[in-house]
Amino acid sequence: MRIRNIVGVDEMLKGNSYFIDTLDNGSVDWQAVFNNNNPIHLEIGMGKGQFLKTLAERNTDINYVGMDKSKELLWKSCKLLDDTKLLNIKITNQRAENLELIFPSSGVERIYLNFSDPWPKDRHYKRRLTHNGFLQRYKNVLVSKGEIHFKTDGLALFEFSLEEVKQMKGIELKEVNFDLHKEEPIDNVMTEYEEKFVNMGKAIYKFIAVVE
Ligand SMILES: C[S@@+](CC[C@H](N)C(=O)[O-])C[C@H]1O[C@@H](n2cnc3c(N)ncnc32)[C@H](O)[C@@H]1O
Description:
Number of helices: 9
Strand content: 15-25%
Oligomer: single chain
Strand order of the largest sheet: 1-4-3-2-5-6-8-7
CATH topology: Rossmann fold
Bound molecules: S-adenosylmethionine
Number of domains: 1
Shape: globular
Distance between the termini: 34 Å
CATH architecture: 3-Layer(aba) Sandwich
Structural class: alpha/beta
Helix content: 25-40%
């Protein structure tokens, strides 16, 4: 996704109540942030925020945290959230590589990976967010029986990701779907990328994996 620089985005983000600067602050007391100990669901690579906003509106007893490495996209998410009065969603400027910094003890119940960058070149395979190095990080922050929900339009990335999960001890595949939209999926919330690909007639692949 190519995004134009936004002048003053750092200051604008810092002034927004939905944004938490974890590059400055590192570890976060999420219970204090949300003022409750409801379950935490995390989206890594949230993009413009449509998916997480919809979930937060539907499930007010779940706390949603969105992460993205792009400040410009985080700002777009802030603007989307500014029209709401949601108390159960926060977004932060962190990379998946630093997940354990902001969740130092396991406490995440669910991780969403939606249309993660495919990194198709062989030499970049370790950058894929379902590479076993990332799966290990997810295991470190997820509670027992916590789940990873992964959606993509890329068959090669999907097959790579299934293999990575199968080879990893302590994670089991619970559901695998090679055509999520073949029948109207119950409770599926579409992301911006998903809408685009579904409108193009592409198949959407999804798995759910559970940690021990
Ligand atoms: C292809 S977009 C998908 C956006 C959104 N999830 C959707 O489905 O519409 C991938 C997103 O992941 C973010 N991203 C890529 N690598 C990341 C990383 N290592 N840590 C955090 N975010 C990352 C990008 O900035 C981008 O917003």
